[in-house]
Structure formats: C-alpha cells, structure tokens
Design brief:
Layout: E1 4-9, H1 13-27, H2 38-48, E2 52-56, H3 65-78, E3 82-84, E4 86-87, H4 95-104, E5 110-112, H5 114-117, H6 127-136, E6 140-142, H7 154-163, E7 169-171, E8 192-195, H8 205-215, E9 220-221, H9 231-239, H10 245-260
Parallel strand pairs: 1-2, 2-3, 4-5, 5-6, 6-7, 7-8, 8-9
C-alpha cells in the first residue's frame, strides 16, 4: 500500500534545531523526532516505506517569505519524493507575484499557520492571498483549531471557503486541533479537505472514524506533522482505525495525489 505523508515541516540545516525547538515551545510538547531536517524525515520515512512527502515551512515575518520558498523549492529539487508548499504572509508586498514565482519553481500549494503568524483566517489583510491562490489554482493548507487562540477556528476557514468557492483548502488536524466538537462549521462546504496530523493521539478513534465517514474518506489525507510526531506511531494509530482497505488507500495516498499532485513513486 502506498503512503504519502501529506504534512511535514522541514528547515534549513543551520536553523533546523532552533526552529524545531521553537515549535515544541509553542505547543509545550517534546518534539519526538528531535530535529526537522530533510535527512531525518527521509530516514524516518524510508523505514516505513513512505513513498512521498508534502513538505512546508512557515514564515513568521514577511521578509522570510522568499527565502523560505527558495529553500522548499531547492529541497524538492534535491529530493524527488518531496512535494513542496510555499509560504506567504498577510501584508506581503507582492502576493500574486511571489506565489506565481513559487508555482514556477514547482511548488504545488501554500501552507499558512494563522496561530504562528498571528492573523485571523478571515482577516481582510489575508484576502489577497486567497484571491491569488484561487487564480493560480494553488490549494492552501491551513493549520486549524487550538482552543488557546481565536485565529484559526473552523468557522473562519468555512467563511473563506464560501467567499472563494474555486479555492481548494485543507483544514489540518481533522479540521480543527482540539476543537473537534466544532466541525459543524464545515457542513455544506465542498472545497475543504482535511488531514489527520496531530490528532490521532488525542481524538477518540470512534470520533475520528465518524468524522471520516461524515465528510468522506476522499477528503482526508494522512499526515504526521513531522517533526512533532514519529511517522511510525502516527501510521500505527491510523491503521488501527476500523476503516476499509479502500478508505485506507484513499487517505494514505490518493487524496494527496489529487489535491497536491503529490508524488508516490
């Protein structure tokens, strides 16, 4: 069975440890993989037979956008199994131009983390990002949920999906980390998919399966949130869910291929 890890964070070697530690501090969690570097990701994945990885990194300031996009594009060029997502930041001077450049470099979508970046998903300052992404046909992976912050509530993403009906979005963490009781917001929203990252250790397995059946397996992707969790453990949690083989295959690779054009060779 093919496996694509559709949610991985990687960083340049010289800052990988510092960036990984910062994520751990933000969530007050020990980062199980130690460091978010490409070699460690590949080593983890190869042990499990992971065929492809969707990789990203998040700009916490506008001036970081271009260099991060260059880094992700270079990482993908060096590692054929990587499919890269660009970063962007509200208020960046030339959103459309930079996303056009990122797409020309081979990046297949955009990753936004409203909590790290401290903006509301439905803030007017972020609308140019969604307008450009819709025009350029670049899906956006959003960090969604977290009871501690107002930025990425499911209702905010659902609002943007309705405002931009041709924009394909992905709500990470089953559509709302730690607020899985508030996913009614997505009812009737057709242009949102989901991934399983940073959820299966916390959500009740019965609730996880219920959500997959409620929204459809064809809208879910497997993701580890590397380096936060070990792929081996996340995959074991996923495979323990009472799903059919077709549902497993859909979530493990087919949806990521459709949404991101992810590689699985």
């Amino acid at each position: 069975m093919k496996i694509i890890d559709a949610h991985c964070h990687i960083f340049p070697d010289k800052i990988a440890q510092k960036a990984t530690d910062s994520i751990g501090k933000f969530y007050d969690l020990e980062m199980e993989c130690g460091i978010g570097s490409s070699p460690v990701l590949l080593q983890e994945g190869e042990a499990l037979g992971v065929a492809g990885f969707v990789v990203c990194s998040t700009a916490t300031k506008p001036h970081q956008v271009m260099s991060i996009n260059d880094f992700i594009a270079q990482a993908c060029a060096q590692n054929p199994r990587f499919t890269g997502l660009a970063t962007m930041f509200p208020g960046f001077e030339d959103v459309h131009g930079e996303l056009q450049r990122a797409k020309a470099m081979g990046l297949h979508g955009i990753k936004l983390h409203p909590d790290f970046q401290a903006f509301l998903i439905d803030d007017p300052a972020a609308l140019p990002i969604y307008e450009a992404a819709q025009e350029l046909e670049m899906p956006i992976l959003f960090h969604t949920g977290d009871r501690r912050y107002p930025y990425s509530h499911p209702s905010r993403l659902a609002k943007i999906c309705r405002m931009f009906p041709r924009l394909l979005t992905v709500g990470a963490h089953f559509g709302g980390y730690s607020v899985w009781d508030q996913l009614d917001a997505y009812e009737g929203v057709e242009n949102v998919c989901f991934d399983t990252s940073s959820s299966l250790a916390f959500i009740d397995p019965e609730q996880a399966v219920s959500l997959i059946h409620r929204f459809g397996a064809e809208r879910f992707m497997f993701g580890s949130d590397f380096p936060m969790w070990k792929q081996e453990d996340e995959l074991a949690r996923f495979l323990a869910l009472p799903l059919t083989q077709d549902e497993q295959e859909q979530i493990l690779y087919r949806t990521a291929q459709r949404v991101y054009g992810a590689k699985a060779d």
